User: Which sequence fits this backbone?
């Protein structure tokens, strides 16, 4: 049950967002499951309610508004465009029974291809404004910095692609980095495979859709990988330095400029961070005290690919964030079938705002 | 009040369970006709035998409909979220052993580890336009295992039986299934990944943490535990 006070709070936030020029939009509660499953993979099943009917097949109770809002926008093709929405989202809870399965989200999304830094700052600032008077601590990060660092590694494109694919899975990312850096031994089964001239002979019956040509292509890729020199310890140290950044934004910026001396590929991502910091400052955000974490945003669902942020209840790290947001350009590329629109957005949870106000 | 003990209602699992308790001085019997699902316990007052479908025992334990239950440790882990907060393992029973494993076609000579599976899944998705399908009926266990091991670009497809045949039928590219000897997997052209063991399951006596345990019930449990040597 959504308390009346949360509905009132949601209405207040909607007023704030529409006053800033956002067009109010709606989204169906039942969303086709295939799009969400294709985007997020099986993990979404652990987090969203899947149901089905005999005609439409699998449907999902909307786990967030982002996907339907992006789809709607990709059809309208307006640029720039601002949208606001308010409504229930549904989250399946497999681990923590105290977390709600149904709660309100009020969101603000900006599609603006011209001035991304300003759009980032605009979304952060309006979410911060919505939370005025609530004891929250903001956290920020930038997936784009990590992406740029990986792309700047002096190694094969295949290795870079493998690392980029696992940015959102820190454990697998680390395992890959250890292997590409020669820090862990190659598994014996792979060494054995690579030592045989024609491993496909007598391999077993040819069954399934993954054909022998695909197996052969991967063996060739493994040979290429074995022939490539390891990623240097210096470069891995630089990546680790980025991942362990945890400072105020201006300090992080100067550290990134230092790291950039040894890793020139960082320069454009660092410049974007500087531009964003200026834009935030112009929006009245106190950037001198704004926290930035190099690792932030890596464990959420994989759609944020640039600026990321969250607002956490002050002194209550055990609680979920009151608000979250970030940039998701890549998501628009997938949903727009190749046509991307730079997009950034954020959501606030009115129930948590009401609860935190009640405590203070 | 009595302490309810849920036991699989038929087949080898029931017989083995009866034998296991008999070895420890507790005679469980099916009463009435062979088709009737009623039972009796001799050897311990206050303990009531309830014959149930093995697959439903995890849920009945979680809801507290039975105080104790015998079922596979795989079923408890797959069907119950936070299983260890809902039930406690009293005794592994040493039978009904089977491993939940990930298996792929033998012809995938390039795939021996989860790391390989993940890489193959990425290439498969890029080539075929959909995620690599893994057939299973143990959705939660498999999903958690693959998530913990950072495998991406796969999709689980439901298979409630004859799972080993799904690859040949091209409804899945790999399987996650229960096996005891691996013979059925091999016969269907499949092999187990070297790090693909998700859970080594066996029949286990569980205690419900959610059932209403009165003082009298606890006394019965204490007598049972001493009888079983726990």
Assistant:
């Amino acid at each position: 049950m959504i308390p009346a006070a949360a509905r009132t709070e949601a209405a207040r936030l909607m007023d704030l967002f529409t006053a800033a020029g956002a067009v109010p939009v709606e989204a169906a509660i039942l969303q086709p499951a295939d799009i969400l499953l294709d985007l997020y993979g099986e993990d979404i099943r652990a987090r969203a309610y899947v149901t089905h009917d005999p005609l439409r097949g699998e449907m999902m109770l909307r786990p967030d508004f982002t996907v339907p809002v992006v789809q709607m926008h990709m059809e309208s093709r307006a640029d720039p465009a601002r949208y606001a929405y308010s409504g229930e989202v549904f989250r399946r809870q497999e681990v923590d029974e105290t977390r709600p399965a149904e709660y309100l989200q009020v969101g603000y999304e900006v599609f603006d291809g011209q001035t991304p830094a300003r759009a980032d700052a605009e979304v952060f600032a309006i979410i911060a404004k919505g939370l005025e008077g609530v004891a929250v601590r903001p956290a920020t990060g930038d997936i784009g910095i990590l992406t740029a660092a990986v792309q700047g590694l002096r190694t094969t494109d295949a290795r870079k692609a493998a690392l980029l694919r696992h940015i959102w899975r820190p454990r697998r990312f680390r395992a890959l980095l250890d292997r590409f850096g020669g820090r862990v031994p190659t598994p014996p089964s792979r060494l054995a495979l690579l030592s045989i001239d024609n491993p496909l002979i007598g391999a077993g019956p040819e069954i399934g859709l993954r054909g022998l040509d695909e197996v052969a292509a991967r063996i060739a890729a493994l040979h290429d990988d074995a022939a490539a020199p390891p990623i240097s310890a210096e470069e891995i140290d630089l990546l680790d330095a980025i991942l362990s950044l945890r400072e105020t934004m201006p300090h992080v910026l100067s550290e990134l400029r230092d790291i950039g001396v040894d890793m020139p590929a960082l320069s454009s991502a660092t410049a974007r961070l500087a531009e964003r910091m200026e834009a935030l400052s112009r929006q009245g955000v106190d950037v001198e005290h704004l926290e930035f974490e190099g690792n932030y945003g890596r464990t959420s669902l994989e759609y944020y690919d640039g600026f990321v942020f969250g607002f956490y209840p002050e002194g209550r790290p055990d609680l979920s964030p009151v608000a979250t947001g970030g940039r998701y350009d890549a998501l628009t590329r997938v949903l727009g079938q190749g046509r991307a629109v730079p997009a950034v957005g954020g959501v606030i949870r009115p129930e948590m705002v009401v609860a935190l106000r009640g405590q203070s | 009040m009595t302490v309810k003990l849920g036991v699989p209602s038929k087949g080898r699992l029931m017989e083995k369970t009866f034998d296991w308790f008999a070895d420890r001085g507790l005679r469980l019997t099916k009463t009435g006709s062979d088709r009737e699902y009623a039972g009796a316990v001799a050897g311990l007052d206050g303990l009531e035998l309830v014959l149930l479908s093995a697959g439903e025992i995890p849920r009945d334990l979680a809801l507290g409909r039975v105080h104790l239950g015998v079922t596979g440790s795989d079923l408890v882990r797959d069907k119950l979220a936070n299983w260890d907060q809902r039930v406690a393992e009293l005794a592994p029973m040493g039978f009904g052993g089977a491993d939940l494993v990930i298996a792929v076609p033998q012809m995938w000579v390039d795939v021996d580890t989860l790391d390989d599976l993940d890489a193959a899944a990425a290439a498969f998705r890029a080539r075929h336009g959909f995620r690599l399908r893994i057939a299973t009926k143990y959705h939660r266990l498999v999903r958690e295992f693959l998530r913990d091991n950072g495998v991406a670009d796969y999709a689980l497809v439901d298979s409630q039986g004859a799972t080993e045949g799904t690859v040949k039928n091209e409804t899945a590219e790999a399987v996650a299934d229960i096996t005891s000897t691996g013979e059925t997997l091999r016969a269907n052209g499949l092999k187990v990944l070297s790090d693909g063991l998700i859970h080594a399951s066996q029949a286990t006596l569980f205690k419900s943490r959610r059932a209403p345990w009165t003082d009298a019930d606890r006394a019965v449990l204490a007598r049972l535990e001493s009888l079983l040597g726990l």
